[in-house]
């Protein structure tokens, strides 16, 4: 048998068609049966096996008029050919899965002031509508989420916008109003027409620095005319702690409507008040890398999530 043919000093590579033809002959030890299995004519099958032998530089088959036998080299190559063809099959299945929407891993980043209140709806949607989707949730502050999105550590973010970040596309989900939460018997409790100017002199409790909700609350206060030098003496790491501080009489705070029931429903030492229209509000959206490979999938997911959130006290985007 001649040595393997080469081009430019490098050995030629066998083709998948050659490997498939030889593997079929090795299994059946019969050219006609092998050709029928892979849908190839007998002359084409024989030519493919001969070409493989020439490429590899070894004799793979012992041919007689009555039967076909594997040579010792053919037995070894047949086992390896089957492994290669199985690996190629796995690769094709993986590519098919990657092409199919809502399959594989989706790494979702969520800010802490959204996660406890929206994740139940997100998880139900994925379970009921996208069961083949492997959802992985990461709760982090906005700056960390944006870094993870840019680096490819995260695929999609659920957070407050606008972000004002280049190469990030926002898919708005809803707007929600802020509600004043105060200690029981507070003079603003129970009102539905609180003017924003009331925030100018209130003892306001906020989240720690780094939370976008803190920045949003401060923006609202500035718009209401609150002196930027008016101190914020107490802050908290999470909304639950913030609400407990309010119940203890240390001041008032602003909560988004989606957090209100969870955070105030179990405490009878709190009262709430609503702002006059237009009430201060925030926008919640999904965010993705601009031009992401899964852009169409993420846009469809945003539409489905808007529908899943219609039971919440929010204004759905596009309605």
TrEMBL record:
GO terms for cellular component: protein-DNA complex. Keywords: Activator, DNA-binding, Transcription, Transcription regulation. Residues 14-71 form the HTH lysR-type domain. It holds the Pfam family HTH_1. It comes from the Bacteria. The keyword Transcription applies. One of its GO terms (molecular function) is DNA binding. Belongs to the LysR transcriptional regulatory family. This is Probable hydrogen peroxide-inducible genes activator.
